[in-house]
Write a structure and sequence with these properties.
The protein is α/β, with parallel strands linked by helices and about 375 residues long.
Length: about 375
């Protein structure tokens, strides 16, 4: 497929401001549950919509070219605004913060934000689990500063070990050796355990499954294989390019003895498998063929303050207006923002992947528009 798909609607301009309940509800002691009984535990924060890669499944070059209008800096949430929202979310039960992008390491002085987030605590006085997802291109030079600021772990996106394949997939001719070096440096400074995410596209990089597994086995790095997903509207997604996780597992088990492992946390996206000799583990993220909507506990905050309650959402909720006020709304207090977010979460009923999996004949159905992955992170 060579034709580019150009989005006809800029979803960054769409966002409803969550209403603030009046009167404010009394403080809650238990978890906030959505309409399907799922707690809010994980907040993914996009700090930039820019990236220095042009991976076809996320930011294809024919759409995100030199003329593409990224968000101006004035529209981005400041670090203080991000930290303020994260503090409010922690009061609502969030225990984990993941910084994403775009490529988050492109955001200048990111270490200052990490230091602010590392200082936050849950209502029980515990630090939040603070991690970051990166393409690894800048990791070697920034790993020590990230660790010193309080970052705990990193996840690195890496879709091939073969240099030619990797350069074609990132579409900016970036060498795989520099990403591998970044992973080594991150391990050395203590940003561990490191996870490596590989998006698998049938016919593109599926021959890299076993080489990737062999490379990271015994290193302490957890390699996870992700089914190619229909996120956004610009990547030309086709079901015939999805390699089901069951097939990935079959290839891996032909090469090594794997045994199932129990989930490491509630709402975990990956199915875990360990090497029988104890030399490590791999994960399978099967959003297309085995939907995990049933226990999804994640919300996503875009770089200019839109909240999305599903990776496949179309409309976001404008939290920046609550922070700053605008022509219609006045700036709100933390208690008012918490009440608005709690009411929003209790109405949440998203389950796009679950519906897609149960209606294979309508694979292209669902939201008429979906926000792009680079804008809210994976």
């Amino acid at each position: 497929m060579t034709d580019g798909v150009i989005p006809l609607l800029d979803l960054r301009q769409i966002g409803r401001t969550p209403p603030v309940p009046h009167p404010l509800p009394p403080p809650r002691t238990g978890p906030w549950l959505d309409a399907r009984g799922r707690p809010l535990r994980d907040l993914r924060i996009s700090v930039t919509d820019r990236c220095n890669f042009r991976c076809s499944y996320c930011m294809p070059k024919d759409v995100f070219d030199k003329d593409y209008a990224f968000l101006p800096h004035r529209d981005l949430l400041s670090f203080e605004e991000i930290a303020r929202l994260a503090r409010v979310f922690a009061q609502l039960g969030v225990q984990k913060l993941r910084l994403t992008g775009g490529e988050p390491l492109l955001r200048r002085h990111l270490e200052a934000l990490i230091a602010q987030l590392a200082a936050l605590r849950t209502p029980d006085g515990l630090p939040l689990d603070l991690t970051l997802t990166t393409n690894g291109s800048l990791l070697a030079r920034k790993a020590q500063a990230l660790k010193d600021a309080g970052l705990k772990r990193v996840t690195v996106s890496l879709d091939a070990l073969d240099d030619d394949i990797f350069r074609r997939m990132n579409d900016v001719d970036f060498p795989v050796a520099e990403v591998l070096h970044g992973i080594e440096v991150a391990q050395a400074v203590g940003l561990a355990p490191i996870k490596v995410n590989m998006v698998v596209k049938r016919g593109t990089n599926d021959d890299q499954i076993v080489p990737m597994a062999r490379h990271f086995r015994g290193t302490g790095v957890v390699l996870r294989f992700i089914e190619y997903m229909d996120v956004g509207m610009s990547n030309g997604w086709r079901m015939d390019e999805v390699l089901p996780s069951a097939e990935v597992l079959a290839r891996l088990r032909e090469d090594a003895d794997l045994v199932p492992l129990a989930p490491s946390s509630d709402g975990e996206t990956a199915t875990r498998w360990g090497y029988a000799d104890g030399s490590g583990e791999i994960g399978l993220i099967s959003s297309v063929t085995q939907a995990f909507c049933g226990d999804c506990n994640r919300a996503r905050l875009s770089t200019e303050g839109r909240l999305y309650t599903c990776l496949f959402a179309g409309d976001g909720h404008d939290l920046r207006a609550l922070l700053r006020g605008d022509a219609v709304h006045e700036a709100r207090t933390d208690d008012e923002i918490a009440a608005a977010l709690g009411a929003l979460w209790t109405r949440r009923n998203d389950r796009y992947s679950e519906l897609r999996a149960s209606l294979p004949a309508a694979m292209d159905s669902g939201p008429a528009r979906r926000v792009e992955m680079h804008y809210i992170g994976g």
